[in-house]
Amino acid sequence: MSSTTSTTSTTSTLGFAILALLARADSTGYEIASRMRNPVAYFWTASHSQIHTDLQRLLSAQMVAYDRAPGPGPQDKKVYTITAKGRDALREWITTPPRPQPERDELVLKSYAAWLADPAALMEMFRTALHRHEERLAEYERAWASLEEGAPPLFGTPKFGNMAALRCGLGYERHRVEWCRWMLDQLSRSLNPSCEAAKPNDE
Amino acid sequence: MSSTTSTTSTTSTLGFAILALLARADSTGYEIASRMRNPVAYFWTASHSQIHTDLQRLLSAQMVAYDRAPGPGPQDKKVYTITAKGRDALREWITTPPRPQPERDELVLKSYAAWLADPAALMEMFRTALHRHEERLAEYERAWASLEEGAPPLFGTPKFGNMAALRCGLGYERHRVEWCRWMLDQLSRSLNPSCEAAKPNDE
DNA sequence: ACTATCATGTAACCCGTTACATGATTTA
DNA sequence: TAAATCATGTAACGGGTTACATGATAGT
């Protein structure tokens, strides 16, 4: 019999993001949402509404299960667990190559059109962007330092995943900081094109 | 009178991407789609169907206009132009700070869950990712070189935008290449944890 | 008294992808 | 003769955001 439940359940990427979190620790839907807003898991966020609906889909695909527990509100809270089936699906998904996702970056788009706009206003925009990236970078650096304190991360432990994702975040923010600084430099030159040689080193 | 057409037209980001392209050269919808698939404008893509519908919206908001010209197919082709109103809206949009967009990156998500999966399969995945990024990087480097050949880019000319976007692309691909190499190194260590110091350079 | 945190859910809407539909010209 | 390129459009569907709706407890 093909009762191995060929559920046609084309679990969305968010579904796997949820499974990846549940594989580390059982959580309520609410907790999953908040964990996604925390340092390491920045790279896949979702609103609580979407998480709840997705959990229901995962539930009907038998990839998660839950235990009821008395909740603060009118309804019980549901503490979700990943099932064996869910873990298998997740494990399989991890190593299937993601197809190249179209990159959409509003700031880069704006930079592409920057030649039409006011340089001073542009500089302010890039200054705020720079600050955001510097803050993120500092945050990641703190997280990295605290990771390196403990034992070296073994493959097979969640810590390996933390370092992998963090390492990417660090590189990304460094690249962004660098680019914003370069943009500011270019823009400031366009404002006062007087001293062009008196620039010690740009990159 | 408020007949300055307060069209409530909250032109989408794609709308501005289209305007940014039209500000450089008049195009048909088809051409806009193909221009988005070209080196410099990779950072904002869209399918032709979406572009056509968006052009209709921009048209009703009087941000673009078009001239009919005999087309190859059954219908005339429409060569779109940006209007003064469109250019004003674009110019204003460029300097309004984009609100931080949630970063969603499937490969990073997979790396976060990598501790659960098979190292060898992971290595293959990261190897193909590495190749893709190396190719992109080479492409960007060629484009950069050809940009540097001509006259230095003046603010106020499209070339400034090309360099700004390209510079970002270069930094991004370099960061990605670096991260993929680091991942491969980590994974290979987990496969044979014997010689940890004797690793000169893979690739 | 008000706000924040914890906790669950539904409904409307927007943006984007994929598939459907048509058809001339050029190239392999 | 088959395909790729040029060229325009519609329709269905999926994923994501925002807003709506409820309500207890803890802190300011």
TrEMBL record, chains A, B:
All copies of domain Transcription regulator PadR N-terminal, residue ranges: 18-92
Keyword annotations from UniProtKB, A to Z: Coiled coil
Domain called Transcription regulator PadR C-terminal: residue spans: 104-187
Alphabetized Pfam families for the sequence: PadR, Vir_act_alpha_C
Coiled coil (residue ranges): 123-150
Gene3D superfamilies given in the database record: 6.10.140.190, Winged helix-like DNA-binding domain superfamily/Winged helix DNA-binding domain (1.10.10.10)
Origin superkingdom: Bacteria
Keyword Coiled coil applies: yes
Name of the protein described by the UniProt record: Transcriptional regulator
